Amino acid sequence: KEILEKHHGLFPLQWQGVTGNSCVPGQAGWEQLLSDCSAFLFYGMERFLSHVSPARLVAMNIPECRLVMLLDLVRSEKSYRRIRNSDTHKSCLPTAVEGPTEAAALLSLAGARSIIANQWYTTLQENAERLEILSENLLSVGRTTGQTVRILQK
């Protein structure tokens, strides 16, 4: 919320979505958010595709989405139990396509033009630092996604 408030006045953009953990969108909610955006930020626990159905994502058409930022792959004891319980009801194939590389590929096939995503599990603090760097460089400084990713790599 602090980052949204900090950068809210920089551009005449509409910021919309879901913040906090009181309301987690269902499949239709995620599809609506992805379909109506020029940039999409997922900042959450576990794998992005454990929240959004890969089968439904591959059928989506999101060519207006210029940038997807997936700051996922954070694990807590509660999120691990949730994902473990969810994964026990799936076969190996659906679970295998929920990784970060697969998420990037499916988003690209759906029409997203650029994707920034974690490749391995991380902490909430590290993702908070990444979000600060991303928002500062993309929104305040006006760097390109490529320049911003290079800064993150350093």
Automatic annotation (TrEMBL):
GO biological process: axoneme assembly; cilium movement involved in cell motility
InterPro entries tied to this protein: CFAP46
Top-level taxon of the source organism: Eukaryota
Protein name as it appears in the record: CFA46 protein
